């Protein structure tokens, strides 16, 4: 069980407690000066996710530890008309509890994501209550103070059973997938990671920008050395200017096969979603499962110079579903009420597969990608690459029954993949488990037409509240070619092994953190001379190239001036084979201003760019045999990893990093490293 800790300050000189309850979370304010303690439980477990009757509210308040007994509520005001005995959406309740004694102090209280209870141990009783004042105000009328959310992550080995047999896997807090992190925009998040496993560990908070704070970003040997067995490291960061669904995962070896979980960032108090408010929310994280130990499988593949064995199943929330053997009990199920709407927060944590996702009998409305709101559009299926997140609204308006949700790979090249379908179930309330679910109609595995059409529908909102600040002028233009190749390997079959490269450079991982080397000006760790374009132009997507496949090797980084605007064109090539590549940039969002099939034409293609409302992402899917153009402003100083999010290709060297120089301002330089930064 994950454990969260919050500091409750109590200062009763003001002679008051304030309890604030709304439909998404509750807060305990310790005094009239609003020293806020914000507690964000799992939304699905919270007692106020739907309107409640007066007696339910009274019961809930009495359970908060009030020493007397509350019997009625009066003076209800709501944002919109509701029945007089109902707590409606869009309101918050203030309970003012005054005390006759003066005291002050603070203490730590634990928060379980399954139970939230304020007791006398949390806020000590200081005398009889003088009176109650009950009222309701609009959400926008009170601004909550930013909270600090603290999590304890214990990395440990746990036995987990899937596909008819158990095996030891690396987990966080014994959970698979790991715990979901909840926060609000503006919160501070502190996560203490203690490593009890036999592997070194680092964790990346995928999509969080970590402004000037790369020390909290997580990729091993890029922004930190790994957390060694028996050691710990505290990731301390602010959630600034972001809201939506992201995710976290191990960022060393292939350990993210089992070490991953979701991040849910709720909007600031009083800020509604720019789409119809859901009645309930659910997290869906897609993954992969191997029968055998993943690290051993990778070692075997590397020893032979060949790709490791593909996974044996895909999973939804760690469960493959009943189409796999011994998996009836390993099926995620979601109960819905007829007529209600649901927000599904989806993350693709699979290591090597882009995935199609669909729900039998239901369409989906896409409202967010990579924690950025989009212009809503309705679709029967979505495509999601490793590293990406997507939020969809689903209306439970079909005939009551049981329906499969299903994922399977997008197979864009003629190479073997785990093409089995993972399933979960949507079950309407009152429908028995004996009713057989129906399967959705997924796109065919090689449906590139659907893939291109789906991605072309993605658009930023570009409204006054959520503008698309696309750089219109470019200071630095880059062209990175993506290719597979070969490297010398005396112990491998035929004396070579497969490799991958950007601009014909296979990245060599250092033995110390690149950010620390940059910050301390250490010599000999990397060179800031990654080329802006490939060494030689050629017909990138023509006939397959099978000669001159050997790449150069180096720890070469691209140096970028602070606050400069950058355009990067990522070009797939037919070195060995064309293939789609999901590229992730740490520390930034970017705008995908253009995508095309074939070779990028610098004379003609920029005229087709979307500079008005392009999708804003942190992970872009470069199409098979095509290109993607992204733009961003380099306003986040530090060393930021840029890599393919197919773990197979990352391990082969398909990666580099940007060194963004410090700016002239006081807060435009990389912060000093934390004292507990792990040593190498």
TrEMBL record:
UniProt xrefs under InterPro entries: Cu-oxidase-like_N, Cu-oxidase_2nd, Cu-oxidase_C, Cu-oxidase_fam, Cu_oxidase_CS, Cu_oxidase_Cu_BS, Cupredoxin, CuRO_1_LCC
Cofactor note: Binds 4 Cu cations per monomer.
Chief location bin: secreted
Example of a GO cellular component annotation carried by this entry: apoplast
Compartment(s) where it occurs, according to its Swiss-Prot or TrEMBL record: Secreted, Extracellular space, Apoplast
UniProt keyword annotations, A-Z: Apoplast, Copper, Glycoprotein, Lignin degradation, Metal-binding, Oxidoreductase, Repeat, Secreted
Gene3D superfamilies with a match to the protein in the record: Cupredoxins - blue copper proteins
A matching Pfam family: Cu-oxidase
Catalytic activity from the UniProt record: 4 hydroquinone + O2 = 4 benzosemiquinone + 2 H2O
tRNA processing recorded as keyword: no
SUPFAM superfamilies: Cupredoxins
Full protein name: Laccase
Plastocyanin-like domain ranges (all copies): 155-269, 281-430, 529-662
Family: Belongs to the multicopper oxidase family.
Domain of life assignment: Eukaryota
Enzyme Commission number(s): 1.10.3.2
Described purpose of this protein according to its UniProt entry: Lignin degradation and detoxification of lignin-derived products.
PANTHER family from the UniProt entry: LACCASE, MULTI-COPPER OXIDASE
Enzyme kind, highest EC tier: oxidoreductase
GO MF entry, a single one: hydroquinone:oxygen oxidoreductase activity
Cofactor(s) in the UniProt record: Cu cation
GO BP: any one term: lignin catabolic process
Source organism of this protein record: Tanacetum cinerariifolium (Dalmatian daisy)
